[in-house]
Specification:
- This protein has about 375 residues and is of the alpha/beta class.
- It has helices spanning about 15-25, 60-70, 85-95, 105-115, 150-160, 180-190, 210-215, 230-235, 250-260, 290-295, 300-305, 320-330, 340-345, 355-365; strands spanning about 10-15, 30-35, 50-55, 75-80, 100, 170, 195-200, 215, 230, 240-245, 265, 275, 280-285, 310, 335, 370-375.
- A five-stranded parallel β-sheet has the order 2-1-3-4-5, with helices on both faces.
- About 35% of the residues are buried.
Length: about 375
């Protein structure tokens, strides 16, 4: 049995019985061991150290590679003796903490002790907030954590679509995290190293939409003094995130459909066809089903983008996750919250969803002088409170 100060929870990702049995014996009763086989299990399991059996790489995808790199500061790669050469070279070139297997318990303990001095300050509980990078405008912290079946399904879908190049359609009420989900999908994809281009279709002027999307050449219209590039050309090799899809006119929808089908477009004023490699993510809080019935949304565009639909649930649909979301949001600033305050949060309807929850918590933290949030400091900021 090994005991390391500050280490009490380990998550092991492996399907091999010899490895799983080894860690069950090694951890004994002093260290809590959780065993998983899928990336989607990571955000719902509390751990201080992630041990990854590199045998899993054989059957996994690029989403796994990027996810492992996000967790690299608390990741130990277990390298079985029968690991293929290509995987071994990848692991050795990308990760700091590698231990061969089989290994004696004592040798493994010595390795962990030497690693401990290199870890960031101290081991902290890992959660989905680690899946964030500079392209995510609002961190994943507090959006997709929790143990409800509905949010587990969302996490699974996000990881699944991240490894494709197909369009994604994100549906959900205002404040449910559609922008954050779009940035996370991009960040986990092969395109994640390039900046994602974001644009709200609520701001597009229909007469200028073609130029906005595809650019224009000099002299193509009055005041077109220079040649410009459009959103799709700017995002070549990356991702375009279109928010407020439900506000796009039928003409604007037709322009989007054309480039989605072929990747080809022409700048305004040019006869030269160009091709781009762009992944498109759409988001809307509109009822597209109703719009299809009314004829305000193109059927052909819907069928082009409906293969990868992710419905982000409202906060009232997953109230059992509120405690986890609150803890993950306030713990980064060393705040705690009383049980009665949590109950007050759970009993509210949250019309503004997670965005409203975060603003509510910011207000509460500003009044919690001792870094403890109490029920009387919870101000929902809804319209009724202004009357």
């Amino acid at each position: 049995m090994f005991i390391i100060q500050g280490l009490s929870r380990i998550l092991l990702l492996s399907e091999r019985s010899d490895i799983i049995n080894y860690f069950k014996v090694a951890c004994g009763s002093k260290i809590a061991l959780s065993v998983g086989t899928e990336l989607t299990e990571i955000p719902s399991i509390s751990f201080e150290l992630l041990i990854f059996d590199t045998s899993l790489i054989i059957k996994k995808t690029n989403a796994l590679y990027r996810c492992l790199e996000f967790f690299s500061d608390r990741l130990v790669c277990l390298l079985p003796i029968d690991t293929p050469y290509g995987i071994r070279k990848y692991v050795e070139s990308r990760f700091k903490f590698i231990i061969p297997f089989p290994v004696t318990v004592e040798t493994f303990r010595e390795n962990l002790l030497s690693m401990q001095n290199q870890l960031q300050q101290r081991l902290k509980t890992a959660d989905l907030s680690l899946l964030e990078n500079e392209n995510i405008p609002d961190t994943v912290l507090g959006y997709f954590c929790g143990s409800s079946s509905i949010i587990k399904s969302v996490r699974k879908k996000i990881l699944s679509v991240a490894d494709t190049n197909e369009p994604v359609l994100l549906l959900g009420e205002t404040g449910t995290g559609k922008t954050t989900a779009g940035a996370l999908i991009h960040g986990l994809s092969e395109r994640g190293e390039k900046k994602m281009v974001s644009y709200s279709l609520s701001t597009v002027v229909e007469s200028l939409a073609e130029s906005t999307f595809f650019g224009h050449v000099k002299g193509s219209y009055t005041n077109a003094l220079i040649e410009t590039i459009g959103l799709f050309e700017a995002a070549n090799g990356s991702t375009v995130f279109f928010d407020e899809l439900g506000l796009a006119s039928l003409a604007v929808q037709a322009m989007l459909l054309t480039v989605l089908e072929t990747g080809n477009f022409k700048k305004v004023g040019s006869q030269k066809e160009q091709h781009v490699d762009v992944r498109v993510i759409f988001a809307t809080n509109a009822d597209l089903t109703q719009m299809l019935r009314e004829g305000t949304f193109r059927t052909d565009l819907y069928w082009r983008i409906c293969d990868n639909i992710i419905k982000l649930p409202s906060l009232r649909e997953r109230k059992e996750d509120i405690c986890d979301m609150v803890e993950s949001y306030i713990s980064k600033e060393d705040y705690t919250i009383k049980d009665e305050a949590i109950e007050k949060l759970k009993n509210y309807s949250w019309p503004g969803n997670i965005r409203q929850l975060h603003k509510c918590l910011r207000r509460a933290m500003s009044h919690a002088k001792d870094h403890v949030i109490r029920a009387d400091q919870i101000d929902f900021g809804d319209i009724n409170s202004l009357q």
